[in-house]
Amino acid sequence: MNTSFWLLFLIVTSLSTSQQTPRLPTPVESGLQAYQTSGATAAVRSWLADSPLASQRDLLNKTVAEFKAIEQTYGAFSSYEVLGIKSFGQRSLRCYLVLQYEKGPVFIYFDSYRTAKRWTVTGFLFNTKADLILSSGFFEVH
After folding, report:
1. pLDDT, tens digit, 9 for 90 and up, residues 45-84
2. CB-based contacts of 88: which residues, under 8 Å, 6+ apart?
3. Domains of the chain: residue spans and CATH
4. HEC profile for the chain?
């Protein structure tokens, strides 16, 4: 085969792999799995584990209560979709997701920070109204 073809193939391959969207940080993904298998309390505990917010018991209780209120209105949590991940340098991410329930969506973002040892969730916010969670760039028509 032509050497130029292989060179072009290698360049395209390396560009496509270097520009891939980052993965969800482990605590975010673990919390979503916990939500699917064990419910809101397990999810919130997982998201807050090793977080600077972990010692705030009132925050845990309030957040679990808010998820349970959503479940009473929207039904059971069933799945999620990643809408986008925005890097802020090499150690900070904001992950935008939509949580799918039986009767409707809930929009959420997670802020995560990479410490010397692992990823940790530094905050998250959720709402049934997309415009309160998603940045204005999500609503641009292309």
Report:
1. 999 998 888 888 898 999 999 999 999 999 999 999 999 9
2. 94
3. 22-133 (3.10.450.630)
4. CCHHHHHHHHHHHHHHHHCCCCCCCHHHHHHHHHHHHHCHHHHHHHHHCCCCCCCCHHHHHHHHHHHHHHHHHHCCEEEEEEEEEEECCCCEEEEEEEEEECCCEEEEEEEEEECCCCEEEEEEEEECCHHHCCCHHHHCCC
List C-alpha distances in Å: 12 to 1, 8, 41, 139.
Answer: 17, 6, 45, 30
CB 66 within 8 A of CB 99: no
CB–CB of 34/43 below 8 Å?
A: yes
Compute the distance between CA of residue 107 and CA of residue 16 in angstroms, rounded to an integer.
29
CA distance 96 to 107: 8
Token pair listed for 134: 């998603």
Task: Read off the pTM.
Answer: 0.81
